[in-house]
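Incident log entry.

Two folding requests arrived from the same account within the same minute. Monitoring flagged them as a possible duplicate submission, but the sequences differ. Recording both here for audit purposes.

Request one:
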Amino acid sequence: MAKLIPRLSLVFKPTKEFSHKDVDKFIELINTTPDLGPNGDCWEWAAGLFTSGYGQVRLAGHPYRTHRVSYSLFNNIELDSKEYICHSCDNIVCVNPNHLFLGDALINMRDKINKHRDKYLSHDNHPLARLTQANVEEIRQLYASGKYTQKQLANLFGVARTNISLIVNNKRWR
């Protein structure tokens, strides 16, 4: 028997992968208290988490990410392992199907970049960055002065000449 989530009148449907018992277990572990999450209407997972911070539920003996289970149950589909379920609310413990959308690695990364959530994409914060924004501006000024070659700048800043070329031609650190 399908069960209603309190205050939302949405119906979970079992799939081939998840039984009625699995669905009931999943529903019991969702916190639908109003005003949760950044948008005020997140359904937050109220049980175990993976080390990544995503919700974790064990169904039929296997661990699953809760947002994937929610999307699968509410849309009555089985997901391919290559398909991503993305959060429009950016709350990784949210399982509200209205906050979830189907994507792939590229869509997920674009969403992350568009929302400025990828701390590693900002140059100064990248864990492997050897240069700062100030270094880049200085490199461009020194090269524009005509007093330094790309090779000299590479030696001065301790990076490869190809990096200097990409910087002075605005193909990197734009």
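Request two (distinct sequence, not a duplicate):
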Amino acid sequence: MEFVVKRGKHFIFALKSNRTFAGSLTAKKNGVFQAVESLEWEEGHVLTGYLKGMSMPVRLTRQVFTNEDGSTGMLYLVTSDLTLGHTDIVTIYQKRWRVEEYHKSMKSNLGLAKSPTKTVTTQMNYFFMVSYAYVKLERLALSANLNQFALKAKLYVSVLQASMGELERLREGVAA
């Protein structure tokens, strides 16, 4: 984290709930740290302090969210940019998360990591075609009102059903 800041950049990322935090420089010097999950603050509030093992101050906030099954979750976010408030931190993190989804889809759904290419030209062509396939898949997913992973699962189930139907027709032909 400090490496990033020393290069003139800031970071925002999620923390594990057991990461420890000191609310002041004095608390840090005295070794008084608390697990992030045990900190108390109001919704939308940001704490400034120190993570254990870091020499520079950070800002910490948490986002409470409701999962599809009705359960609630807690996301602890930390940033080196001491000018950001809760809304800014959450908004920037959500934008970054879309990039993570893009990379995951490129690797998992479209096989980017399985490139059989060896030369720069073929690697560039492969990357271009995977990128093109991503755009096509995203358009299809949007029109189906699904994400790319749900669309892939739906297509996979359809292919399995068609295969099972064809297998059944072949069995009936052999039995006749």
